[in-house]
Amino acid sequence: MGYQLEYRHLRYFLAVAEDLHFRKAAERLFISQPGLSRQIKQMEEDLEIKLFDRHNRRVVLTKAGEYLKEAIERNLKELDHILDHAKLLHDGTGGNLRVGYVGSAMHQVIPNLLLQFKERHPNIIFSLKEMDNQKQVKDLLSLDIDLGFVRLDRVPKGLEIHPVLEDVFCLVLPKNHLVSVDNFKDLSQLKNEPFILFDASYSPSYYEKVMQIFDDSGFSPQVSHNTIHASSIYRLVENNLGLSIVPKSLQQGYNMGVKFIDLNKISQRAILSVIWNKENRNPVLKKTIELLT
């Protein structure tokens, strides 16, 4: 069956589906409310699908409407990306890759990736944005970013994950702390000290791994502060407000009054992984994955 739909019909439908209010949607689209209602009614007749349940002044998406809203949003976003890529090619640019990352990825993995890409594909533009693990997952599923660097063990259906860096953990102490590399034996020496940790919301699986380190050392930590930024952890440690445990790669790029002791003898490792959406058709993504996997 052929449908007489145009791009404007999709925009009209999405506006009503987002606002669930014909007058508000019409004002946003700069058309009359009766005109918008007619367009939606015509769309439903052409598709032979009821998209909205109308109850007095209340508008609700049907199950078919909910599905169509999600599918159209996803596909229109991909179409926008395709057109943007075509414009970049026209302007002499090889393409654009939108990358999300947790802070530790910027110390080694991402700079190495950018250097490799510059040699092979000098006209590629990278748009980089630091964000937490869950935000990356959300933006990958909605195709708002192309690639993510996360500390997660599992990802939702539709995403692919591949480890790119296995990191040892290290202990972070103030520079004047009595424990040093020379006299450190194991973590139980510090069981009476407060600890400053990455918040569980940063990555539940990462937080659980750190808790396993304490479990294996025979004590539960006294957690004095939680944060999602390494710089905040180091500043608190520097001011003798507690100790911390972080991936070794986070030693780089900071100049603060702290010292590190590598925890080489423990079994836990901090894994940094790259994740992407299997449905993403950005041609630059494929080239990037080939370099990383």
Automatic annotation (TrEMBL):
In the UniProt record, does the keyword Protease occur? no
Q: What's a Gene Ontology MF term here?
A: DNA-binding transcription factor activity
Q: What InterPro entries does UniProt report for this protein, alphabetically?
A: LysR_HTH_N, LysR_subst-bd, WH-like_DNA-bd_sf, WH_DNA-bd_sf
Q: What cellular component terms from Gene Ontology apply here?
A: protein-DNA complex
What are the UniProt keywords, alphabetically? DNA-binding, Transcription, Transcription regulation
All copies of the HTH lysR-type domain together span 5-62
By its UniProt entry, which Pfam families does this protein fall under? HTH_1, LysR_substrate
Its family? Belongs to the LysR transcriptional regulatory family.
Q: What is this protein called?
A: LysR family transcriptional regulator
Organism (species): Snuella sedimenti
